[in-house]
Amino acid sequence: MKVVSRASIVAFLLVIGLLVWVGSGIYRAGYTTGVGVPKEQPIPFSHEHHVSGLGISCEYCHVSVTESSFAGIPPTYTCMTCHSQIWNTSPMLAAVRTSAATGKPLTWIRVHDLPKFTYFNHSIHVNKGIGCETCHGPVDKMPLTWRVNTLFMSWCLDCHRQPEKFIRPREEVLTMNWTPEGEHAGKELVKKYGIAVNQLSDCSICHR
């Protein structure tokens, strides 16, 4: 009887362990977190083509990136500054032309959509030296846009606890494939930009 009981306990613990392992895998899988999975958009927009191919800066489309809590999704007239002249009969861009003609904005699907209970100010991060690619990844190599980070709280805390690993000069925040100049450059920038590291892990920083 004791042998059966012990075997049952061991089997039960193994099942629990397996369920935890499987659950953890599902929780972190791409189809759950959105990592590596492009979202279907009204237009198959390619950052790779526009950024790497044409050299268009992030700020050209995301005009409020340094001034607003929200980086901003470009309005149709931004697209039409170019596409009223080039690719202006392309079937792929028919929705853009319809939007421009009717005044009805395109319904873009946000790729980096934080929970409503999380406070996030885009301009603060950019003005403190956090580059676009730090959170959004190498968008200049993305034919379609997908998420490269989970947006889990643990991911945010990695940076908030050690910002010196991620910070860069303000003039380099839009630069893709940027590399730090020296081992201690990050710590110097944290001090220069007045970042209070001891406060970055306070709950009220992100939950207000």
Task: Summarize, please.
This protein has helices at 2-28, 30-33, 47-53, 58-61, 76-83, 94-102, 122-127, 132-136, 153-161, 185-192, 203-206. The protein is an all-alpha fold.
> What is the β-strand count?
0
Spell out the helices and strands N to C.
HHHHHHHHHHH
Helix content: 40-55%
Question: Tell me, what's the shape?
Answer: globular
Distance separating the two termini: 56 Å
DSSP helical segment count: 11
The whole-number mean of residue pLDDT values reads 89
Low-confidence stretches: none
Reported for the largest beta sheet, the result is: none
Which structural class should the secondary elements be placed in?
mainly alpha
**What Rg, in angstroms, do the CA atoms define?**
22 Å
Number of domains in the coordinates? 2
Estimate what percentage of residues fall within beta strands. under 5%
Could you give the topology of this structure?
Elements: H1 2-28, H2 30-33, H3 47-53, H4 58-61, H5 76-83, H6 94-102, H7 122-127, H8 132-136, H9 153-161, H10 185-192, H11 203-206
What brief labels describe this structure?
208 residues, mainly alpha, 2 domains
Describe the structure.
The protein has 208 residues and is mainly alpha-helical. The chain folds into 2 domains: 47-55 and 63-73 and 112-206, no CATH class; 74-107, no CATH class. The protein is 44% helix and 0% strand. It contains 11 helices and no strands. The protein has helices spanning 2-28, 30-33, 47-53, 58-61, 76-83, 94-102, 122-127, 132-136, 153-161, 185-192, 203-206. Helix 5 packs across helix 6 (94-102). The longest helix is centred in the N-terminal third of the chain and has 27 residues, at 2-28. The termini are far apart. The relative contact order is 0.13. The mean pLDDT is 89.
